[in-house]
Amino acid sequence: MSVVSQVILKADDELRYPSSGELTGIKSFLETGAMRLRIAETLADNEKKIVDEAQKKLFAVHPEYRTAGGNASTTKRYNQCLRDYGWYLRLVTYGVLAGDKSPVESIGLVGVKEMYNSLDVPVTGMIDAIRCLKDAALGVLDREEAQTAGPYFDYITQAMS
């Protein structure tokens, strides 16, 4: 849910107008809109590059995942890993666009730890994967954009921990 939606819903629940502090928060949110759009566009336009760099980093750290019996040993499993990278990258863009972590949580984190455990996917490996994805993604952003996007990746790794 966006900052604007949160303010409106809270004020409505309390049968009042938004406070001056809440309006200042909305103003700040709107002023960063162009940057948040740039971040989302840059990440989307560079998805293949980001995913490729992230998977190379992950499999350099965990080469056992690609060996026989590893979690990414078959073509199907490897492609599923790459699909998950793209999915998490999209989740980050949703959070950046909303200016809030709730889309990341509601769309992608509810039950994720349990799902990976049930599939015998090492959660520590997924945390490492998201860190590699973060490094690759932030590498295509400028400093201010990276500071804005970085916490969404951190939120995912914290939820998996």
Question: Overview of this structure, please?
Answer:
This protein folds into 2 domains: 1-31; 33-160, Phycocyanins (Globin-like). It is 77% helix and 0% strand. The chain is built from 9 helices and no strands. The protein is elongated and about 60 Å long.
In short:
Helices cover 77% and strands 0% of the residues. By secondary structure, it is mainly α.
What are its keywords?
single chain, Globin-like, 2 domains, 9 helices
CA-based gyration radius? 18 Å
CATH class of the largest domain: Mainly Alpha
Number of strands: 0
CATH structural fold name of the largest domain: Globin-like
User: Unreliable runs, pLDDT <50, ≥5 residues?
Assistant: none
Main beta sheet: strand number and arrangement?
none
Distance between the termini: 24 Å
Order of helices and strands: HHHHHHHHH
Which percent range describes the beta-strand content? under 5%
Treating each run of at least 4 consecutive H or I residues as one helix, how many helices? Answer: 9
Give the averaged pLDDT, no decimals. 91
Annotated CATH architecture of the largest domain: Orthogonal Bundle
Count of separate structural domains: 2
Silhouette = elongated
Question: What order do the helices and strands come in, and which of them pair?
Answer:
Blueprint: H1 3-13, H2 20-31, H3 33-45, H4 47-61, H5 75-98, H6 102-109, H7 112-118, H8 123-138, H9 143-160
